[in-house]
Description:
The protein is mainly alpha-helical. The chain has helices at residues 57-61, 67-86, 96-101, 105-109, 115-118, 126-147, 149-170, 180-198, 204-218, 224-241, 255-277; strands at residues 14-15, 22-23, 29-31, 34-36. Strands 1-2 form a two-stranded antiparallel sheet. It has a two-stranded antiparallel ribbon with strand order 3-4.
Amino acid sequence: MPTCYRHPDRETGLSCSECGRPICTECMTAAPVGIRCPDHAGGARRSFPTPRPIVRAQRQMGSTYAPVTKALIALNLLIYLVTVVQGNGINSPAGSLFDKTALYGPLVQQGDWWRLITAAFLHASVIHIAFNMFALWVIGGPVEQYLGRARYLGLYLVAGLAGSAGALVQAPTAVTVGASGAIFGILGALLILEWQATGRLAGQAMTLIVINLAISFSIPGISWGGHVGGLIGGILATLAFARWGRGHAAYGRLGLAGAAGLVVIAVASVAIAYWKVRGLA
Protein backbone atom coordinates (compact mmCIF):
# COMPACT_ATOMS: atom_id res chain seq x y z
CA MET A 1 0.00 0.00 0.00
CA PRO A 2 1.46 3.44 -0.93
CA THR A 3 1.95 6.06 1.78
CA CYS A 4 1.19 9.77 1.67
CA TYR A 5 4.21 11.72 0.37
CA ARG A 6 3.74 14.28 3.16
CA HIS A 7 2.89 11.75 5.90
CA PRO A 8 4.93 8.57 5.33
CA ASP A 9 3.22 6.78 8.23
CA ARG A 10 -0.21 6.97 6.58
CA GLU A 11 -1.22 4.35 4.04
CA THR A 12 -3.51 5.56 1.29
CA GLY A 13 -5.17 4.48 -1.91
CA LEU A 14 -5.57 8.06 -3.16
CA SER A 15 -3.26 9.97 -5.49
CA CYS A 16 -3.10 13.47 -6.96
CA SER A 17 -4.67 13.68 -10.41
CA GLU A 18 -2.04 16.24 -11.44
CA CYS A 19 1.28 14.73 -10.36
CA GLY A 20 0.28 11.17 -9.38
CA ARG A 21 1.82 11.24 -5.91
CA PRO A 22 -0.03 9.34 -3.15
CA ILE A 23 -1.89 11.55 -0.65
CA CYS A 24 -3.97 10.94 2.45
CA THR A 25 -7.44 12.38 3.02
CA GLU A 26 -6.02 15.22 5.14
CA CYS A 27 -3.83 16.40 2.28
CA MET A 28 -6.32 15.95 -0.55
CA THR A 29 -8.43 18.72 -2.07
CA ALA A 30 -11.45 17.82 -4.21
CA ALA A 31 -11.42 19.55 -7.61
CA PRO A 32 -13.66 19.30 -10.71
CA VAL A 33 -10.95 17.30 -12.46
CA GLY A 34 -10.20 14.98 -9.54
CA ILE A 35 -8.42 15.18 -6.22
CA ARG A 36 -5.28 17.31 -5.86
CA CYS A 37 -2.34 17.36 -3.49
CA PRO A 38 -1.56 20.57 -1.54
CA ASP A 39 1.03 21.61 -4.13
CA HIS A 40 -1.52 21.41 -6.95
CA ALA A 41 -4.66 22.46 -5.11
CA GLY A 42 -4.52 26.02 -6.46
CA GLY A 43 -2.35 29.05 -7.02
CA ALA A 44 1.04 28.88 -8.68
CA ARG A 45 2.06 25.42 -9.69
CA ARG A 46 5.53 24.12 -9.14
CA SER A 47 7.39 21.70 -11.35
CA PHE A 48 8.03 18.20 -10.12
CA PRO A 49 10.03 15.36 -11.56
CA THR A 50 7.97 12.67 -13.20
CA PRO A 51 6.69 10.50 -10.36
CA ARG A 52 7.08 6.79 -10.23
CA PRO A 53 3.71 5.32 -11.26
CA ILE A 54 1.69 3.56 -8.60
CA VAL A 55 0.69 0.16 -9.88
CA ARG A 56 -2.49 -0.77 -8.05
CA ALA A 57 -4.20 -3.33 -10.24
CA GLN A 58 -1.30 -5.76 -9.94
CA ARG A 59 -1.17 -5.29 -6.18
CA GLN A 60 -4.89 -5.89 -5.86
CA MET A 61 -4.71 -9.12 -7.81
CA GLY A 62 -1.64 -10.36 -5.93
CA SER A 63 -1.52 -12.66 -2.94
CA THR A 64 -0.99 -9.74 -0.53
CA TYR A 65 -4.27 -7.97 -1.35
CA ALA A 66 -6.87 -8.01 1.45
CA PRO A 67 -5.51 -10.99 3.43
CA VAL A 68 -8.01 -10.57 6.27
CA THR A 69 -10.94 -10.51 3.85
CA LYS A 70 -9.62 -13.64 2.15
CA ALA A 71 -9.20 -15.39 5.51
CA LEU A 72 -12.74 -14.45 6.59
CA ILE A 73 -14.20 -15.75 3.34
CA ALA A 74 -12.22 -18.99 3.67
CA LEU A 75 -13.38 -19.44 7.28
CA ASN A 76 -17.02 -18.86 6.35
CA LEU A 77 -16.78 -21.34 3.48
CA LEU A 78 -15.08 -23.94 5.66
CA ILE A 79 -17.73 -23.66 8.37
CA TYR A 80 -20.48 -23.88 5.75
CA LEU A 81 -18.98 -27.07 4.33
CA VAL A 82 -18.85 -28.60 7.81
CA THR A 83 -22.52 -27.76 8.45
CA VAL A 84 -23.44 -29.15 5.02
CA VAL A 85 -21.66 -32.45 5.75
CA GLN A 86 -23.33 -32.65 9.17
CA GLY A 87 -26.67 -31.53 7.77
CA ASN A 88 -29.08 -32.63 5.07
CA GLY A 89 -27.41 -31.42 1.89
CA ILE A 90 -25.88 -28.43 0.17
CA ASN A 91 -28.90 -26.21 0.87
CA SER A 92 -29.76 -27.61 4.29
CA PRO A 93 -26.85 -27.02 6.66
CA ALA A 94 -27.41 -28.39 10.16
CA GLY A 95 -25.74 -30.68 12.66
CA SER A 96 -23.97 -30.23 15.97
CA LEU A 97 -21.83 -27.26 14.91
CA PHE A 98 -24.85 -25.39 13.61
CA ASP A 99 -26.91 -26.19 16.70
CA LYS A 100 -24.16 -25.08 19.10
CA THR A 101 -23.32 -21.79 17.38
CA ALA A 102 -26.50 -20.34 15.82
CA LEU A 103 -28.05 -17.27 17.46
CA TYR A 104 -31.12 -18.15 19.53
CA GLY A 105 -32.30 -15.90 22.33
CA PRO A 106 -33.40 -18.51 24.90
CA LEU A 107 -30.06 -20.32 24.66
CA VAL A 108 -28.17 -17.04 24.93
CA GLN A 109 -30.17 -16.34 28.07
CA GLN A 110 -29.03 -19.70 29.47
CA GLY A 111 -25.37 -18.71 29.06
CA ASP A 112 -24.44 -19.43 25.44
CA TRP A 113 -23.01 -15.94 24.92
CA TRP A 114 -20.56 -17.11 22.27
CA ARG A 115 -23.53 -17.38 19.89
CA LEU A 116 -23.48 -13.59 19.57
CA ILE A 117 -20.33 -13.85 17.42
CA THR A 118 -20.32 -17.44 16.14
CA ALA A 119 -23.67 -16.96 14.38
CA ALA A 120 -21.94 -14.47 12.08
CA PHE A 121 -19.98 -17.37 10.54
CA LEU A 122 -23.00 -19.58 9.80
CA HIS A 123 -25.23 -19.48 6.72
CA ALA A 124 -28.58 -21.01 5.84
CA SER A 125 -28.17 -21.83 2.12
CA VAL A 126 -25.89 -21.63 -0.90
CA ILE A 127 -27.50 -18.40 -2.07
CA HIS A 128 -27.14 -16.93 1.41
CA ILE A 129 -23.41 -17.58 1.70
CA ALA A 130 -22.71 -16.81 -1.98
CA PHE A 131 -24.33 -13.39 -1.75
CA ASN A 132 -22.64 -12.55 1.56
CA MET A 133 -19.17 -13.68 0.46
CA PHE A 134 -19.45 -11.80 -2.83
CA ALA A 135 -20.41 -8.64 -0.94
CA LEU A 136 -17.60 -9.21 1.57
CA TRP A 137 -15.04 -9.49 -1.23
CA VAL A 138 -16.28 -6.50 -3.24
CA ILE A 139 -16.78 -4.15 -0.28
CA GLY A 140 -14.44 -5.58 2.33
CA GLY A 141 -11.27 -5.61 0.22
CA PRO A 142 -11.14 -1.83 -0.40
CA VAL A 143 -12.15 -1.03 3.19
CA GLU A 144 -9.40 -3.31 4.50
CA GLN A 145 -6.89 -1.40 2.37
CA TYR A 146 -7.99 1.92 3.86
CA LEU A 147 -8.27 0.81 7.48
CA GLY A 148 -5.44 -1.69 7.69
CA ARG A 149 -5.67 -5.30 8.84
CA ALA A 150 -6.03 -4.87 12.60
CA ARG A 151 -8.68 -2.14 12.51
CA TYR A 152 -10.57 -3.91 9.74
CA LEU A 153 -10.71 -7.18 11.68
CA GLY A 154 -11.83 -5.35 14.83
CA LEU A 155 -14.52 -3.58 12.81
CA TYR A 156 -15.77 -6.88 11.37
CA LEU A 157 -16.02 -8.57 14.76
CA VAL A 158 -17.74 -5.76 16.65
CA ALA A 159 -20.14 -5.19 13.75
CA GLY A 160 -20.98 -8.89 13.96
CA LEU A 161 -21.69 -8.51 17.68
CA ALA A 162 -23.78 -5.40 17.08
CA GLY A 163 -25.67 -7.24 14.36
CA SER A 164 -26.49 -10.08 16.73
CA ALA A 165 -27.72 -7.59 19.32
CA GLY A 166 -29.93 -5.97 16.70
CA ALA A 167 -31.28 -9.35 15.60
CA LEU A 168 -32.23 -10.19 19.20
CA VAL A 169 -33.94 -6.84 19.62
CA GLN A 170 -36.04 -7.57 16.53
CA ALA A 171 -36.77 -11.27 17.06
CA PRO A 172 -35.24 -12.82 20.20
CA THR A 173 -36.85 -16.22 19.71
CA ALA A 174 -35.92 -16.68 16.04
CA VAL A 175 -32.87 -18.66 14.94
CA THR A 176 -30.57 -16.18 13.17
CA VAL A 177 -27.39 -16.84 11.19
CA GLY A 178 -25.27 -15.00 8.66
CA ALA A 179 -22.45 -12.52 8.14
CA SER A 180 -24.82 -9.79 6.99
CA GLY A 181 -24.49 -7.76 10.19
CA ALA A 182 -20.71 -7.64 9.84
CA ILE A 183 -21.01 -6.77 6.13
CA PHE A 184 -23.41 -3.93 6.93
CA GLY A 185 -20.78 -2.77 9.41
CA ILE A 186 -18.28 -2.61 6.55
CA LEU A 187 -20.82 -0.59 4.57
CA GLY A 188 -21.06 1.78 7.54
CA ALA A 189 -17.27 2.13 7.53
CA LEU A 190 -17.34 2.84 3.80
CA LEU A 191 -19.94 5.55 4.42
CA ILE A 192 -17.67 7.33 6.92
CA LEU A 193 -14.59 6.95 4.72
CA GLU A 194 -16.44 8.44 1.76
CA TRP A 195 -17.82 11.26 3.88
CA GLN A 196 -14.36 12.15 5.18
CA ALA A 197 -12.90 12.06 1.67
CA THR A 198 -15.61 14.08 -0.08
CA GLY A 199 -17.45 15.97 2.66
CA ARG A 200 -20.76 14.41 1.53
CA LEU A 201 -22.86 11.57 2.87
CA ALA A 202 -24.83 11.19 -0.36
CA GLY A 203 -22.56 8.94 -2.38
CA GLN A 204 -22.04 5.35 -3.47
CA ALA A 205 -21.94 3.99 0.07
CA MET A 206 -25.22 5.64 1.02
CA THR A 207 -26.82 4.33 -2.17
CA LEU A 208 -25.74 0.78 -1.35
CA ILE A 209 -27.00 1.12 2.21
CA VAL A 210 -30.41 2.44 1.16
CA ILE A 211 -30.88 -0.28 -1.48
CA ASN A 212 -29.88 -3.10 0.88
CA LEU A 213 -31.98 -1.79 3.75
CA ALA A 214 -34.97 -1.54 1.41
CA ILE A 215 -34.43 -5.19 0.49
CA SER A 216 -34.07 -6.11 4.17
CA PHE A 217 -37.39 -4.54 5.12
CA SER A 218 -39.32 -5.76 2.07
CA ILE A 219 -38.45 -9.48 2.04
CA PRO A 220 -39.94 -11.60 4.85
CA GLY A 221 -37.53 -13.71 6.86
CA ILE A 222 -34.56 -11.35 6.61
CA SER A 223 -33.17 -10.12 9.93
CA TRP A 224 -33.38 -6.37 9.33
CA GLY A 225 -32.54 -5.90 13.00
CA GLY A 226 -29.20 -7.60 12.44
CA HIS A 227 -28.51 -5.41 9.42
CA VAL A 228 -29.35 -2.18 11.23
CA GLY A 229 -27.36 -3.22 14.30
CA GLY A 230 -24.30 -4.10 12.23
CA LEU A 231 -24.56 -0.83 10.31
CA ILE A 232 -24.65 1.20 13.51
CA GLY A 233 -21.74 -0.77 14.96
CA GLY A 234 -19.64 -0.21 11.84
CA ILE A 235 -20.34 3.52 11.74
CA LEU A 236 -19.47 3.96 15.42
CA ALA A 237 -16.29 1.88 15.12
CA THR A 238 -15.05 3.91 12.15
CA LEU A 239 -15.81 7.17 13.93
CA ALA A 240 -13.77 5.85 16.86
CA PHE A 241 -10.89 5.15 14.46
CA ALA A 242 -11.17 8.79 13.38
CA ARG A 243 -11.07 9.91 17.03
CA TRP A 244 -14.66 11.15 16.78
CA GLY A 245 -13.97 13.76 14.11
CA ARG A 246 -10.53 14.88 15.30
CA GLY A 247 -8.76 12.82 12.66
CA HIS A 248 -9.29 10.67 9.61
CA ALA A 249 -10.18 6.99 9.57
CA ALA A 250 -8.43 6.23 6.28
CA TYR A 251 -4.93 5.91 7.69
CA GLY A 252 -2.99 5.21 10.86
CA ARG A 253 -2.89 2.43 13.40
CA LEU A 254 -5.49 1.15 15.80
CA GLY A 255 -4.47 3.46 18.65
CA LEU A 256 -5.97 3.85 22.11
CA ALA A 257 -9.10 5.68 20.93
CA GLY A 258 -9.84 3.05 18.29
CA ALA A 259 -9.27 0.14 20.65
CA ALA A 260 -11.40 1.77 23.34
CA GLY A 261 -14.15 2.40 20.81
CA LEU A 262 -14.19 -1.26 19.77
CA VAL A 263 -14.39 -2.38 23.40
CA VAL A 264 -17.25 0.02 24.17
CA ILE A 265 -19.23 -1.12 21.12
CA ALA A 266 -18.66 -4.79 21.97
CA VAL A 267 -19.69 -4.32 25.61
CA ALA A 268 -22.74 -2.28 24.60
CA SER A 269 -23.79 -4.99 22.13
CA VAL A 270 -23.55 -7.70 24.78
CA ALA A 271 -25.45 -5.49 27.26
CA ILE A 272 -28.26 -4.88 24.76
CA ALA A 273 -28.45 -8.60 24.03
CA TYR A 274 -28.58 -9.39 27.76
CA TRP A 275 -31.33 -6.82 28.28
CA LYS A 276 -33.40 -8.35 25.49
CA VAL A 277 -33.05 -12.03 26.45
CA ARG A 278 -33.13 -11.77 30.25
CA GLY A 279 -36.85 -12.50 30.44
CA LEU A 280 -36.87 -15.43 28.01
CA ALA A 281 -37.47 -18.94 29.22
